[in-house]
Design brief:
two-stranded antiparallel sheet, elongated, mainly alpha
């Protein structure tokens, strides 16, 4: 704790200390913001490929799990369970992305007038 201010000199000294402290805190804040922005860029680059897939999974989980299955559950379960399900589903999709894409596009590919055409390999 600082000493009490008794004289004008004490006030001027305290003002200089506070200005120095403010300058140091501003520099620290700039440094922290720069670090956060760098970390954010790294996170965005790593997840940009699966952005739409993850958003779709999040919406499905919110609708089915949070509003459907857990509609009468307590607030704690309604917060924790969807979070865990989103994490597991995102990880599963990331690991099996190629298989999921193949199944999704095979549904639309190769059909003409209800007759399935042979796929090219």
């Amino acid at each position: 704790m600082m000493n009490k201010i008794h004289t004008y000199e004490d006030l001027v000294e305290r003002q200089k200390q506070m200005e120095l402290l403010l300058k140091l805190q501003k520099e620290q804040l700039r440094y922290d913001i720069r670090d956060l922005m760098d970390a954010g860029k790294t996170a965005v680059v790593g997840t940009s490929q699966n952005f739409f897939i993850n958003k779709g999974v999040d919406k499905v989980v919110d609708i089915v799990v949070k509003k459907g299955v857990l509609s009468n559950a307590g607030w704690l379960y309604r917060m924790i369970v969807p979070f865990v399900v989103k994490r597991f589903s995102s990880k599963y999709i990331k690991e099996h992305k190629k298989d999921i894409k193949d199944k999704f596009f095979s549904f639309f590919r190769g059909k003409t007038n209800g007759v399935k055409q042979p796929t090219k390999q």
